[in-house]
Design brief:
histidine biosynthesis; ATP-binding; PRib-ATP_PPHydrolase-like; hydrolase; HisE; binds phosphoribosyl ATP; mainly alpha; Helix Hairpins
Length: 126
């Protein structure tokens, strides 16, 4: 776990000040700008210049930390770790020139389609 200690700044369940879409878009813009930033002064620039494997390693670490937080049953810790996981996933998307909107559109496309039915239709296609 890093030095960022935002766990206690907002109690679990409070609404964020702005919509989730807005923070995702703002963060994506920052990540894009960090592509030309100095790695010495930007964590994101350091990750992006480090290449795909460094980003993937962080995602694996954050996924493992998310699992541990869930098992511990500490909801604040879980939210914190999922935020880390989402953040590093957004860095991976930026690395590939993708945006949060690409994922949101995919989720929208899936909206209302039962996972069980979708899996069944894939089996029938084979
Ligand atoms: N949302 C985040 C964010 N979430 C987590 N982190 C960093 O991700 C890292 C998480 O890794 P760990 O918990 O494993 O901590 P660590 O052991 O110190 O990390 P490593 O040194 O092993 O990589 C920490 O350094 C956190 O500070 C983030 N760093 C940046 N952002 C956003 O990205 C923007 C740009 O950041 P910079 O590029 O650093 O200016 C910021 O303004 C924020 O909006």
């Amino acid at each position: 776990m890093g030095g960022r200690d935002t766990c206690n700044q907002r109690s679990y369940g409070d609404l964020p000040a702005m919509s989730d879409l807005t923070i995702l878009d703002r963060l994506a813009e920052t990540l894009e700008a960090r592509k030309s930033a100095d790695p010495a002064s930007s964590y994101v620039a350091k990750l992006l210049t480090g290449g795909q494997d460094k980003i993937l390693k962080k995602i694996a670490e954050e996924a493992a930390e998310t699992i541990m937080a869930s098992k511990d049953g500490d909801m604040k810790h879980l939210v914190y770790e999922v935020a880390d996981l989402w953040f590093h996933s957004l860095v991976l998307l930026a690395h590939h020139g993708l945006k949060p909107g690409d994922v949101l559109h995919e989720l929208e496309r899936r909206e209302g389609v039962s996972g069980i039915e979708e899996k069944q239709s894939r089996k029938m296609e084979r």
